[in-house]
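Hey, I was hoping to borrow your eyes for a little while. I've dropped the whole record in just underneath, so have a look:

——
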Amino acid sequence: MNKALFRGPQFLSVPRPTRMAWSRPAHFLPLMPILALPISDTELLNVSHYGSIAVQIPDGDGMIPTVVLVVHPAFIAPLPFNKDGNWLPPYMPMAMRCLPFTPAIGGGLLYAPLLIEPDASGTMRVEEAPGKPTKEFQQLHEMAQRLHLGAKRLSDAARILIAAKVLVRLETLEETADTQFFIASAERLDALEPQQAAGLTALGMLPLELAAAMLFSQRFLTRRVDLRDRPTPGGARSTLDRRSELFEPLPPDLMAGNFALDGGDLFDFNILARRG
């Protein structure tokens, strides 16, 4: 899942059975600059305070869209890391907490050898016996599985946004031209017909929540929208124009009726009219 996102270190499959030792990274400098992080649907709102949420679509047919948090310095500012390579508190995304491991596309685990220091303090084993994971590794593996499942749900929501044609692509980097990021367009969302907008309420309204989180997190963006996807003048109708179509005229029998407001202690229309 992360091979296209963590640029630099090579992620390898965790062998089984294994006597491999691991430790939590003291910092993330070996990964810098990080392009983007996969995220889970359960942390969507939390991570929107740290970078720009986007849909990552690699080049090639049949590639699965991945909802990510873009944290590359060429795309956002300020960065969610300090000068020592540590993530800024209070919330750390699940993808960072899982390191040096990361979920694989099939649901297994990969690991980054560059992040494992054999002599580091707090070194732990993957297995305490063949086929029996240690408590620490089991907890990390469960978190990685939650991230994998949450990322799949967000991927399904992203497909709906893609089908609704409300995403626009960001300008790519030359060194990452094989990876394209798409963000929600306020103009395209505003131009949706009511029936189209209703489709965003599928999956427990997750597509709508995803679009809202993407719009909210765009305040971090320093990268422009690709010229091919920028709106053309007059290309979308205004909100007022569309909303006027939602109101149906009263039936003829009611139009001919004599409507009046009853006076009362709280509000009397006749007094209001005399004052006007």
Observations:
- Confidence is low (pLDDT under 50) at residues 232-247.
- Residues 135-163 form the longest helix (29 residues).
